[in-house]
Amino acid sequence: MTGAAVLLLDAAGPESAALVRAASKRGLQVHAATTTADAQVPAPELAGQVVTDFARLDRAVEDISTYARRRSVGAVLTANEYLTELAALVCAELGLPGNAPSLAHAARDKAAMAGVLTAAGVRIPCTRLVHDDTDLQNALADMRIGLPCVIKPVDAAGSAGVTVVTSPADTAAAANAARVARGRYGVNNAGNAGILVQAYVAGDEYSVESITQNAVTTHLAVTRKVVTGGAHRVETGHSLPVRLPPATEAAVHREVDAAIRAVGIRHGASHTEVVIDADGRCTVIEIAARLGAGHIGLLLQHALGIDVFAALLDVALGHPAALTPTAHGHATVRFITAPHAGRLTALTGFPKQGPGVPFVRWRAAMGGLVNTAASNADRLGCFVVTGPDAAEVEQRADALARQIHVQVDPTPAPDDCDQLNSASRSAIAP
Ligand SMILES: Nc1ncnc2c1ncn2[C@@H]1O[C@H](COP(=O)(O)OP(=O)(O)OP(=O)(O)O)[C@@H](O)[C@H]1O
Ligand SMILES: [Mg+2]
């Protein structure tokens, strides 16, 4: 469909940039939909943009569809976690390949997700939606939950507002953190959407990166995660592809296939987070109807030779997607976090891009305030290492990580502390 245009819902971020490059390479015009608050002069590589209000789904569907019809848009997609439901609704309105509009909400709202996954027989942690303190106490007293438990927002992302609670004394603060960390754009923010209390699942964390086309799913890779311990779990590394024992892999794929169907993913990427326990049992923590963030697309490209961005364009355009690996290597991304909260004063030993290190990114401003990692937004930078051999790649990444020294001045005086949260975020350049 040469000459067809592509429309991205939110064109910011590295995954969107890669989609724009993939589309431009094919001579496809790229348009963007943006929300009023984020609207800015469109980047030169964009053919145009429609500004709407992402918080008002009906209105956004109408604005975007009207814009798309006038420009012969042949594909609508998004890499933005918060816009996957809107993407499904717009695709349905325009008759383009997309996910089931009636189920797309369940890939975003974790209460709805728990409902559809349970109904589909997917193994998930016992999850209770709570709206007030009485609900919260009842959930904590539920024998299927117990302690430790996890308290999390219904619709946030990037680990924001997620707390692993080990003591009853910490529940009030955790509940408050979950209430405050609501989804971006205000979607679902009207009224009291509640928070979730979930059983804690012990085990190793993985994600499964998949692409579904015409309701047929290809699992591209299993990714192993390194996650911080303690109350706030932040992903500090992804490595792929992981070779699980065949029986475990089959069990994981079974759960993930069922989860993909349950949330109505028919055309597009998915990123399913699972925990595998000591007995090889797989529990699904969540599923997202988008490509894994944290540079997972880049890892797939380098380790397996799969151009996921080109593949996602093909899926969105309704063309057959090339999903067969053409390489058999390994790739890892490591994220750097601050040793403690304070002012970032020095950084030494951060790797440079070069052979086997295809990507490095430092995003924390020198002299700015930084936080210990409580969510993905607190990560300071990252680097990617790739190569043919998994053990060598991991060793090299470990060695590079050991050379990095991040100096953070002692915790600021108490009156600075209140500002720490927002200041540390604004110190992070896009
Ligand atoms: N039920 C659970 N049992 C054990 N650990 C959990 C559970 N729920 C969440 N976690 C931990 O907290 C992390 C963040 O939780 P979750 O994935 O639900 O939040 P999120 O905001 O959607 O994160 P992201 O967008 O980064 O995937 C998980 O990666 C995991 O380490
Ligand atoms: Mg998650």
UniProtKB/TrEMBL annotation:
A Pfam family matched in the record: ATP-grasp_4
Listed Polar residues bias regions:
419-430
All residue ranges annotated as the ATP-grasp domain in the record:
114-317
Q: Where is this region: Disordered?
A: 409-430
Q: Which domain of life is it from?
A: Bacteria
Name the keywords, alphabetized: ATP-binding, Ligase, Nucleotide-binding
Claim: Nucleotide-binding is one of the keywords in the record: yes
Q: Which InterPro entries match?
A: ATP-dep_AA_Ligase (IPR052032), ATP-grasp (IPR011761), LAL_C2 (IPR040570)
Q: Name the PANTHER family on file.
A: ATP-GRASP ENZYME FSQD, FUMIPYRROLE BIOSYNTHESIS PROTEIN C
Its protein name is: ATP-grasp domain-containing protein
* Organism annotation: Streptomyces thermoalcalitolerans
Taxonomic path: Bacteria, Bacillati, Actinomycetota, Actinomycetes, Kitasatosporales
